[in-house]
Write a structure and sequence with these properties.
This protein has about 400 residues and is of the alpha/beta class. The protein is built from 14 helices and 14 strands. The strands form three sheets. Strands 1, 2, 3, 4, 5, 6 and 7 form a seven-stranded mixed sheet that branches. Helix 4 packs across helix 8. The longest helix is centred in the middle third of the chain and has 21 residues. The relative contact order is 0.13. The N terminus is likely disordered.
Length: about 400
């Protein structure tokens, strides 16, 4: 391949967040709260069997306020200067111990996960559900075990795939002079796992050069590391409204884990009340305004009061924070706004700031051209930063919030 052949970042994944967890922890509640899709919610395990899909939004300041022109978004929304950018959410069946062997709804669950770029692991921080999601007195189940169980389960699932016929694959890779990570990518591609991720995982471990010498233990460690590299997990410590301080402190002080206390039930109640015109609540905010106190029953007033207390303590319900932490901090995505006309900030049909794209940090101007359209990438000449009106080269790394015009051969 000659040096100037440019490989576009093929298949930029549609941002998909998978919601995972054992049964009865509030996954569907979290999902409904963030997407307003009605999903079945009930206080018993395995309520969800078929995965629910919906759209949630992450927030960024909309550039229209800075430029001082009203926008007409197409692929996103603008709510009083806040750009709401869609991400796909997937709510799956609960996972029980030994799912990797096919127990419970195991395989279906694991297949549903394959496409997710990042996972939100919903746990029951109140400890009121056992390992299979049955109700137990609050504080009975240690929620830290929920975290360890999930990590182990996914690792064992990946291990099972790597192990199947491993010696044959390793020998063949050696014969063909192929890197083992490339050979394993072939195996794991169905899970959306890439060679680079396997490579990074291998580098972290002290594995023998010769893959044929790897022990079962080595493969399990590799599976764990591959999971950590390819499917990043953020933990939503749900039912935090009913959790003891001791549980929350322990969860929040866990090393190498990102834990966000959440009350999915609170978020769902607020969004429904907002939709019903009873209150004014903007997603992710730390308070709400009651619009019609006269229409609220005493019970509703008390419930809203308790929700506000929770929000005062945690700075919100945590649901939006968990989603945004996954998208912006864990996946490291930034928002950029391609426009055709750098002066009017419009597309072909005159819409101002039509689209917001979530792209990985490190994306350059030509990558963006390819993300918008392959032809635009192939015919890329230069780009223009609409803020400064300066020309930028193909390898110029984009910043969060950039508004960019791509100039291409017609
Ligand atoms: N206290 C409290 N209860 C919650 C919260 N979120 C959900 N619940 C309750 O937990 C129970 C289970 O909720 P679901 O959303 O159906 O749980 P799930 O994880 O989807 O369950 P499966 O589909 O059976 O795996 C319901 O009774 C919810 O009302 C929360 O933040 N706090
Ligand atoms: Mg469910």
């Amino acid at each position: 391949m000659s040096a100037n052949v440019y490989l576009p970042p093929i298949l930029l994944p549609i941002m998909e967040l998978g919601i995972i967890g054992k049964p009865n922890v509030g996954k569907s509640t979290f999902f409904s709260a963030s997407t307003l899709v009605d999903a079945e919610i009930a206080a018993y395990p395995f309520t969800t069997i078929e995965a629910n899909r919906g759209v949630a939004y992450v927030r960024k300041p909309c550039p229209h306020t800075e430029f001082g022109i009203p926008c007409n978004p197409r692929n996103s929304l603008c709510d009083s200067g806040t750009r709401l950018i869609p991400v796909e959410m997937l709510d799956v069946a609960g996972l029980v111990p030994d799912a990797y062997t096919g127990k419970g709804l195991g395989n279906r669950f694991l297949d549903d996960l394959s496409r997710a770029s990042s996972l939100i692991h919903v746990i029951d921080a109140s400890g009121a559900t056992d390992s299979e999601g049955n109700i137990v007195p609050p504080g009975t189940r240690d929620p830290v075990l929920d975290i360890e169980f999930m990590e182990r389960e996914i690792a064992l699932w990946i291990k099972g795939i790597i192990e199947k016929g491993f010696h044959k694959i390793a020998r063949q890779a050696q014969l063909e002079g192929m890197k083992i990570e490339r050979a394993l990518e072939g195996r794991l591609t169905g899970l959306g796992i890439k060679e680079a991720e396997i490579h990074r995982a291998m580098q972290r471990l002290d594995l023998a050069e010769d893959a044929l010498k790897w022990s079962e233990e080595d493969i399990e460690q590799l599976a764990r590391a591959v999971r950590e590299e390819s499917k990043k997990i953020i933990i939503a410590a749900n039912k935090a409204d009913a959790a003891s301080d001791e549980n929350l402190d322990r969860l929040l002080s866990m090393k190498d884990r990102t834990v966000i206390p959440t009350c999915a039930e609170c978020e769902l109640a607020l969004r429904k009340a907002d939709r019903g015109g009873l209150i004014k609540y903007s997603i992710g905010s730390s308070s709400f305004e009651i619009l019609h106190p006269e229409r609220l029953s005493e019970a509703q007033k008390n419930a809203l009061h308790r929700i506000q207390e929770f929000m005062d303590r945690f700075g919100g319900t945590g649901v939006q924070k968990a989603i945004e932490t996954a998208v912006f901090d864990i996946l490291g995505l930034i928002a950029v706004y391609p426009v055709e006309d750098e002066n009017r900030l419009t597309d072909k049909s005159g819409r101002v700031l039509p689209d917001a794209y979530l792209v990985p940090r490190g994306t350059n101007a030509r990558d963006l051209a390819y993300i918008v359209h392959t032809d635009l990438g192939d015919n890329f000449i230069r780009a223009i930063d609409a803020r400064t009106k300066r020309v930028i080269g193909h390898d110029h790394e984009l910043k969060d919030g950039d508004v960019i015009t791509i100039v291409a051969r017609a």
